[in-house]
Design goal:
Elements: E1 8-11, H1 15-26, E2 32-35, E3 48-50, H2 56-62, H3 66-72, E4 74-75, E5 79-83, E6 89-93, E7 104-107, H4 108-117, E8 124-126, E9 130-137, E10 140-145, E11 150-153, E12 155-158, E13 176-187, H5 190-193, H6 195-201, E14 204-210, E15 213-219, E16 225-232, H7 248-258, H8 264-271, E17 278-284, E18 297-299, H9 302-305, H10 314-335, H11 339-368, H12 375-381
Parallel strand pairs: 1-2, 1-12, 2-8, 5-14, 12-18
Antiparallel strand pairs: 3-7, 4-7, 5-6, 9-10, 10-11, 13-16, 13-17, 14-15, 15-16
Helix pairs in contact: 1-4, 1-10, 2-10, 10-11
Length: 391
Amino acid sequence: MPAITFHIAIIGAGPGGLVCARVLQRHGVPVTVYERDLGPVGSAPAGPLELRAATGPAALRAAGLEKEFRALAHPAGLEARLLDHTGAVLHCEAPEPGTTQERPEIARRALRRLLVDSLAPGTVRWGRYLRTLHPRGGGRHQAVFDDGETATFDLVIGADGSWSRVRPGLSDATPHYSGVTFVETGLDDVDARHPDAAQLVGRGTMMALSGGKGLIARRDAHGRVRVYAAFRGAEDWARPAGVQTTDTEAVRSALLAAFDGWHDRLRALLRDSDDGFVNRPLFALPVPHTWPHTPGLTLLGDAAHLMTPLSGPGADLALQDGCELARHLVEAHTWQTDPDHAVRAYEAILFPRSVAAAETAAADLDAALAPDAPRPTHRLFRRRHLHPHGS
């Protein structure tokens, strides 16, 4: 009997989609990745990703890329500090000397390049934006791209992020504004140029919270501190204030006014930043987000479980999703069984895991920006190590 070949498309060349493609190819399963970016650098954010040992690095190990990953990654600082608006330190955690590093950090673009380079030439079709999907019976779907190209697949995997074009074939859910905005800026070479900020933030994450607002700072392995001003408000908070979000000094003045009365050392994170300000309204899918199994379609990563980033392990979950989905598909390919059974098995694991993570992420954000903050987060810090993961 001739071997059955699955025709698989992955929409989106983020970490989850690419690791899925890598594991599939490593085991002889053909796959094509379609990505709207024109090339590997594209619009991928430049900031680092901080991964958790039990998930992200484990997926890269399954992809046969652990050595290459470790060569590009750096140890992330594990120190965690919680302050109030006066600058008083309420909680501080630091790893014991010699503690095994469990949070490697890697630049997003470096991770994408590593994964792309591990694939067979031509696997990723750059500059392809999915417009529509049309059922063709028997679980097959025809994909129509913006350049007019069409192709029909046995399985289409939506790895295309927050505003997935695959998701509508499975779910009516759309991301909603969480009511919280992060405004991001940064300080470079903090030890030499901003020693006070370096001391304030320490070797990891600092969160200063009070009365529904927060300043969150995260030091990376290269001496850069990413700063997030976090607050509740309308998605278009700047417009009523007459502020253009592209006007660096106007945004700086508005944020300093919003954090009036906070200790000057904390306000200096905004006042002395080296970058402009990036407005990041936080979106999330409803919780729980599941869908009725639909032959020929599934989702991974943010397309499946977009959540707020304070403690939501988005990149880790995407890598884990991609690896697990590929593992089930490889097994189906090996034993020449219906790939639909593989997708069902994957979704049975995906749903409870992603729902639990999304519930935790939402609860942690609510605690951090509660009216009586930082008390709720202080309780959480006693049993968790919270880190913001930039979107």
